[in-house]
Specification:
By secondary structure, the chain is α+β, with helices and mostly antiparallel strands. It is built from 6 helices and 17 strands. 27% of the residues lie in helices and 26% in strands. The model has no long low-confidence stretch (mean pLDDT 96).
Length: 293
């Protein structure tokens, strides 16, 4: 029988705690749960009021990996859910609003993915995101070069950008925005991706065409579409090691000369939070959101 624990008055059954989910390092499910409990104070603000898509990997990254967008069977009745619009009709999704809900979801073994809008205003973007994805032999080092260009270009429009690792090969840029639909933000993001390609044609690509990808950084602007989601800050990723989509400083981006410099693992995050706090906290402050030009 799975051990029962109580989290802020909610009873949870936590299963398979000794299962190794990351064979490359021996990182177990118990360590996954401990990680999420440790970073909850900085993770939860980025999850609240955002419908969550779960990318589940219950047997580790080498097992079955699958998306769950609708409320999973067996979801406790105390977990908040909400109806959200979809092209094929409304659906009900989970909102991870508190620590018990976070630990319940973490027990499913999942990446957390969220939209760039809040549940109360679907399709009204409050964030803009760029997913910088390197095509080998390009790495996150080249992503950092592109990120710095995009940071300065956004700043010219009065928009302050922040960076986090994707938890895979690349880098994410995020900024708080206001007063624009997801369609408008997507249009603006595509325009900047095209500008970046014109400014750095040997390095940047704004189209997903696979044959053009080697040695370049694909600036994926499309994740601003209302239907799409992006890995939430501080989520673990389904990779060989327990990599995290972790906020980084601009000093770290500027200084990156080797890919492993920005490969941040679960044990690295709590010390970083103690040193820096939440580097993405400005995204949660409506007063820091810039209007699109």
């Amino acid at each position: 029988m799975a051990p029962i624990t109580e989290v802020e008055g909610r009873r949870l059954a936590l299963s398979n705690l000794e299962k190794v989910l990351y064979p490359a390092t021996g990182f177990t499910k118990a360590e996954v749960l401990h990680y999420y409990a440790t970073v909850a104070d900085v993770l939860l603000p980025h999850l609240r009021e955002r419908p969550v898509s779960f990318l589940r990997y219950p047997d580790g990254p080498d097992g079955q990996v699958f998306f769950t967008k609708n409320v999973p069977p067996g979801t406790p009745d105390w977990v908040t859910t909400a109806e959200v619009p979809r092209t094929e009709g409304p659906a009900r999704m989970v909102l991870v609003q508190d620590l018990p809900s976070l630990m319940w979801a973490a027990n499913l073994v999942t990446e957390f993915h969220t939209h760039q809008w809040l549940v109360g205003t679907p399709g009204q973007a409050d964030r803009i995101v760029f997913d910088l994805d390197p095509g080998a032999p390009a790495t996150i080092v080249q992503c950092c070069e592109v990120a710095l260009w995009l940071r300065d270009r956004l700043a010219a429009d009065g928009i302050e950008a922040y960076a986090k690792t994707s938890g895979s090969k690349g880098l994410h840029l995020l900024a708080a925005v206001r007063g624009a639909s997801s369609d408008r933000v997507s249009e603006y993001a595509k325009g900047l991706a095209v500008e970046a390609e014109k400014a750095m044609p040997a390095l940047v690509l704004h189209r997903m065409t696979r044959s053009l990808r080697p040695g370049k950084v694909f600036v994926d602007w499309s994740q601003n579409a209302a239907r799409k989601t992006t890995a939430t800050p501080y989520t673990l990723r389904a990779r060989a090691e327990p990599l995290v989509s972790a906020p980084v400083t601009w000093d770290e981006v500027e200084a990156c000369r080797a890919p492993d410099r920005l490969a941040l693992l679960a044990p690295d995050i709590a010390p970083r939070v103690r040193d820096y706090g939440d580097l993405l906290a400005p995204l949660l402050d409506p007063g820091r959101a810039g209007p699109l030009p």
